[in-house]
TrEMBL record, chains A, B:
Transmembrane segments: none annotated. GO terms for molecular function: DNA-binding transcription factor activity; transcription cis-regulatory region binding. The lineage of its organism: Bacteria, Bacillati, Actinomycetota, Actinomycetes, Micromonosporales. The keyword Cell wall biogenesis/degradation does not apply. Keywords: DNA-binding, Repressor, Transcription, Transcription regulation. It comes from Actinoplanes lutulentus. This is TetR family transcriptional regulator. It comes from the Bacteria. PANTHER family: HTH-TYPE TRANSCRIPTIONAL REGULATOR RUTR (PTHR30055), HTH-TYPE TRANSCRIPTIONAL REPRESSOR RV1474C (PTHR30055:SF229). SUPFAM superfamilies: Homeodomain-like (SSF46689), Tetracyclin repressor-like, C-terminal domain (SSF48498). PROSITE patterns: HTH_TETR_1, HTH_TETR_2. InterPro entries: BetI_C, DNA-bd_HTH_TetR-type_CS, Homeodomain-like_sf, HTH-type_TetR-like_transc_reg, HTH_TetR, Tet_transcr_reg_TetR-rel_C_sf. Pfam families: TetR_C_6 (PF13977), TetR_N (PF00440).
Amino acid sequence: MPRVTEEYLAGRRAEILAASARRFAADGFHATSMAGIISESGLSAGAVYRYFRSKEELISAVAEIALSKAKEVFDGLLVDGASPSPAEAVSAMVRGVVARAADDTITKTDLTRLAVQVWGEALSNPEVHQRVGDVYRSLRGHCAEVARRWQAAGHLPPDVLPEQVGTAMLGLVQGFVLQRLLLEETSADAYLAGATALLPGSD
Amino acid sequence: MPRVTEEYLAGRRAEILAASARRFAADGFHATSMAGIISESGLSAGAVYRYFRSKEELISAVAEIALSKAKEVFDGLLVDGASPSPAEAVSAMVRGVVARAADDTITKTDLTRLAVQVWGEALSNPEVHQRVGDVYRSLRGHCAEVARRWQAAGHLPPDVLPEQVGTAMLGLVQGFVLQRLLLEETSADAYLAGATALLPGSD
């Protein structure tokens, strides 16, 4: 029996994620079955189930990719005790959506299209609801940290709760994700010009 | 043959909308069939098809309800040449979502749950995509009018495009709609406190 390398396993896993992302994007999360994903992947059922036992596990894997991309954005923003403005953080997130999520190198797909479908699925599937909620709570926490530092630097009144500011920052990014897909004329530049005019502390 | 009153027709139409909204909310837009809606309504197929020939027509009818609610909000904001701040308009929209859309008196359902499902459907259904796009272009136009007046009153730099500000305002509201459903702890008060801290021109 040949020795299976970690690289091989990671490549196989990425193939399955790419196949499932293609099916979700074409037919929607709800209408896609594990059988459809297996067929799209060109692998055996056993090979696919070795990595993912359900659609929900696939969603978790894709969510992890999206979160790790977001973490890179925030690591860059918050390096060496920096205190970027909320407007700068929203700008970095919106540009991260376009540069990283909209053309993911692992799944070869637009993760934001998948996200919008998963939002709908979360309303009738408690397991998906929980996983999506965890992702957004984590992103909101990163946003709140930006607001906390901005407040510590004296740019927000002391009675403002950073968590609440983080909620609104995340909302601006979610609104961009949605409008970019539903209203084709929405560019990151136009959206950020509008957001920047609304938010103080921009360049 | 009895004379059919307008009131009777409107009541019948609302009954069908309520039945379809219940099915969409329970099973998702994609998985709901016209047959399921007919069964839920307790009416004959002929009676239902007299009002709505497809799921897409039902979506249009629900979108009209949502738009007319939004129009009430903006009519109130912009009455007598008023120039409310973008923060005030976002606040009115967010409160309108909670007070009107989340407990619609015609369909007896939470229209925002339906909206989130329709977003996903719009990505694979061109007709739904077009109708949803029209709704958001209209809402964005209302938001842009707020920004235009706010700019005319000297509160926004002259080189800012009101349409772009309107886009970001709408994004903030869409983010609230989503977080309210996916992260239960998101209240309108908390969200608006965060948004208000970010946006100048609030009370």
